Amino acid sequence: MARSQAKRRAALVQPLRAVAVITGAASQGVACSLWRAAKGAYNGLLLGLGAVALLVGGVGIANVMVISVLERRSEIGLRRALGATRRHVAEQFLAEALLLSVLGGLPGTIIGAASTVIYAVSQHWSVQIPAVALYGGLGAALVIGAIAGLYPSMRAARLSPTEALRTV
Q: Which residues contact 151 (CB under 8 A, 6 or more apart)?
């Protein structure tokens, strides 16, 4: 037990010594503050990249769904003429948007977890992926998909049956 703690301590001190040597810092305290600042900047960069990826995914889902509504006007008109309510049409398109987001979010979460495992193993670290991170990735994809699918589903629901069938 004491040996593993000493190994962990040595693994934490080694980067600090390297930072002190590279920057010419007089003490490990200064090196420690530089190390924390660099780590915080790196975390912020990765968080920003993740946010941009979610935004791009949301825009992609919204575009696909808007095009789907435009191409399926006759189907929407037929469903409405046969008795489907606006709510039924909106639910259908929202469910399709959620399905698209799950089909993108699930592989993305799996790839993220796998890359974390590969990197941790290559660095000889213990692998720790919190369940919150896995569920959070999938949950964020669902939320983005729902938000991106709202406009197209409302647009499809607002189509009147006569106008939709007239374009056939």
A: 62, 66
